[in-house]
Amino acid sequence: MQLEPLLIAGSTQSKHDAQGDDELAIDVDPESAPQPQSVPSFPALSAAAVQSSTLKSETRRIPIPPHRITPIKKDWVNIFSPLTEILGLQVRMNVHRRCVEIRTSRHTKDIGSIQKGADFVKAYALGFDVNDAIALLRLDDLYLDSFEIKDVKTLHGDHLSRAIGRIAGQDGKTKFTIENTSRTRIVLADTKIHIMGSFQNIKIARDAIVSLILGSPPGKVYAGLRTVSSRMKQRAL
């Protein structure tokens, strides 16, 4: 009968001890507590600071494949002129490294100009015509997409040759049809396929090429392209 009060007293004493420990462990000093801070305000940059940040030189090197060295020598005037006149970049051809080097200068106005210039030179290195590659400099919604036939289906020997033949068509008829319908440009370099165009148009051309790789007859692909082109015309209207 006398054990219960002792237990109750012991439990109350342990509670008081725990509260005392909490009071000791928690610092209740109001000066040491973190105070709410206001939003930091930074002064505006001066014109000299802005100019120094934009004048920071940036360099890119775009490797050129061996089979594109001779064409780039012939079209060099048409390559460096848009880069220097439109984008305000500095360009040079490094013959020893077999690459085109571009960098920003004080005439470069847009911060994304060097990326556009790199995409332009890369498109030419992949095999696109200069006039087609210049569209990358003038338009903002053009992209490059590259894939290989083996990424779609593993083919060897004659099967691979027939797949390439289906994509190209007789005298390049199938490739030209896909380009005109999807409003893209396609380069068929052995087993590699490069497509330049907008995101939606690249998807249309890629789906048609994948169907040809998987064995669909060109007539069926033409019918699908006609359906897609009619839908695109209706959306344009």
UniProtKB/TrEMBL annotation:
Residues 1-21 are annotated as: Disordered. Gene3D superfamilies: K Homology domain, type 1. Signal peptide: none annotated. Residues 149-214 form the K Homology domain. It comes from the Eukaryota. It comes from Boletus edulis BED1. The lineage of its organism: Eukaryota, Fungi, Dikarya, Basidiomycota, Agaricomycotina. It holds the Pfam family KH_PNO1_2nd. Keywords: Nucleus, RNA-binding. Required for small ribosomal subunit (SSU) synthesis. Has a role in the processing of early nucleolar and late cytoplasmic pre-RNA species. Belongs to the PNO1 family. It is found in: Nucleus, Nucleolus. Component of the small ribosomal subunit, ribosomal RNA processing complex (SSU RRP complex). Its main location: nucleus. This is Pre-rRNA-processing protein PNO1.
